[in-house]
Amino acid sequence: MKQLFTTLFILSMGTSAFSQAITWGTPVSIYSVDANHNNHPRIALNRSGDPYVIFGQTDTRVYFSRWSVSAFTTPVVVSGSLTVFSQSWAGPDLAAYGDTVYVSMKVTPEMTSTNYSYLAHSYNGGMAFAAPVRIDNIGSDLSRFPIVTTTSTGNPLVSFMKFDSGTMANARYVVCRSSDFGMSFSGDVLASKSTSPVCDCCPATLISSGSKAIMLYRDNNSNIRDIWAGLSNDGGMTFPNNVRVDTTNWNITSCPASGPDGFVMGDSIYSVYMSSASGTALVNMSKESISGMSGFNNRITGPFTGLSNQNYPRIDHAGNAAVAVWVQNVSGTRYIAYSFAPDIATGLTGYSILPGSTSSAVMDADVAVAPGVVHVVWEDDNSGKVMYVKGTYPVGSTAAVAAQPAKTVISVYPNPATNEFSVALGNIDGISSCFLSDITGRIIPLQPVVKNSTAVFSLKGIAKGSYYFVLEDLKGTMHYSKLVVE
Is the dihedral of CA 3, 367, 236, 213 positive or negative? Predict the structure, then answer.
């Protein structure tokens, strides 16, 4: 989630020629054993903007590492005794909310009714993980590709691909929710409603923003494999509408094994994905309005001399600014390409090469952005390493701040409080969710009693101490206050 001020990158002579808005540090290795222990790295940030990273050992384990002071910690296994599906093109997923960390994973062999999808969680910044909890309570049906994001209350929202019992028929993406921070999960609801099965070998992306949840996936309409978005306005409880965000009409009879990534900003869904509709595998970007207004769909670079293919794009943003990364092969040389926009509303144009990423065997990358900072991880099979680099960019625009979810300070009374406290709702448009957060990032859900435009909250069972109280209204605006419990 990003933001910037800088010169737009200009595509020159069909190759890359960016004005360098991002200043990169020196790439470092997070882990190095061999090329089977470094696949499908994923990155997320804690509340201080420091990175958490996971990666897989091929069809075996999931590792976790976190930034601590000046270096990454020694990776630890978070999959317990499970044997987990993990390859370069797909595998475990990662999400974070402050010091709460979630890792989703699927037991291998995937297409077996006794092998399930799981979620591991940590409430202390990854210093310790609880045993993985099963996500897919689906009887004899099959699951694949579990992915995770977090809601505005810090709960995990999880999606996975679901098949009919004992087969790979009727592939679809479903979503399930947790209200106890990953300890248990609701039954699943259908999120992919395009009229066709989903592409059964293509991972997807799940996005949560306020009361919105967006399921981005690749469809398979008689071998036309375009990208669609399932839309929810109630936090993932229902997905009544699906919209097509990709108009390339890529027709392919074999499986592309490549899916979309994206984010929501205001009324717009921004997504990146690979399509070979032009005859060359190219990274495309789409902007689609949730309310149905016009958007755009374009190739970030288009074809140019020496380009063989682009694939596995990922994107993140901070305010209006956005960065996308992908794997690119030009004249036999592979590297991680990136594209940066100070205002994503105008799209992404051109690319530059990520420092230290040139290799014959870079396979996959991921990106996370905070205001003024970009973090990228990638898989390098030549060295057998998981690599990381941090970049910075100038922040000066107020536009990016305005583009982030609205937050307002509210008053709570009494404060300090003992048995209960109250909030005068005034112009607050209903309550979607509310919770307390302590200094460790632990989330404590609250249930209001509303009467005469006042919400009353019980503090029964809440320990003495200092907290942040957060209330999300039905428009997605976050209202917050400090609260002392005595």
Answer: positive
Preceding peptide of 414 cis, ω within 30°: yes
User: What tokens appear for 116 in the block?
Assistant: 């399930």
| Residue 20 scores a pLDDT above 60 | no
Contacts of 377 (CB under 8 A, 6+ apart): 30, 41, 42, 43, 51, 53, 55, 365, 366, 386, 387, 388
Residue 440 near residue 97, CB atoms below 8 Å:
no
Q: Which of 328, 322, 404 is nearest to 365 (CA)?
A: 328
Say how far apart CA 164 and CA 160 lie, in whole Å.
Answer: 13
pTM: 0.80
Decide the pairing of beta strands 478-485 and 407-409. Answer: parallel
- Quote the CA–CA distance of 234 and 217 in Å, as a whole number: 19
Average pLDDT over residues 336-352: 92
Per-residue pLDDT tens digits for 249-306: 999 999 999 999 999 988 899 999 999 999 999 999 999 988 776 678 899 999 999 9
**Which range, of 62-66, 71-75, 168-172, 312-316, averages the lowest pLDDT?**
168-172
- Residue 472 CA to residue 437 CA, distance in Å, equals 14
Query: Which among 466, 471, 392 has a CA at the least distance from the CA of 427?
Result: 471
Give the angle subtended at the CA of 171 by the CAs of 166 and 173, to the nearest 5°: 120
pLDDT at 439: 63
The region, left, alpha or beta by phi > 0 then psi within -120 to 50, assigned to residue 182 is left
CB 70 within 8 A of CB 412: no
For residue 279, which amino acid is it? G
CA–CA dist 472, 425 (Å, integer): 12
pLDDT tens digits, one per residue of 362-382: 999 999 999 999 999 999 998
Residue 447 has φ and ψ, to the nearest 5°, of: -120, 115
Query: What tokens were used for 359?
Result: 């290799």
Residue 305: predicted pLDDT: 94
**φ, ψ dihedrals at 350, nearest 5°:** 75, -175
Taken in order 19, 24, 26, 29, the sign of the CA dihedral is negative
How many whole angstroms separate alpha carbon 287 and alpha carbon 229? 11
Q: How many CB atoms lie within 10 A of CB 413?
A: 11
Residue 137: Cβ within 10 Å count: 15
Res 409 pLDDT > 90: no
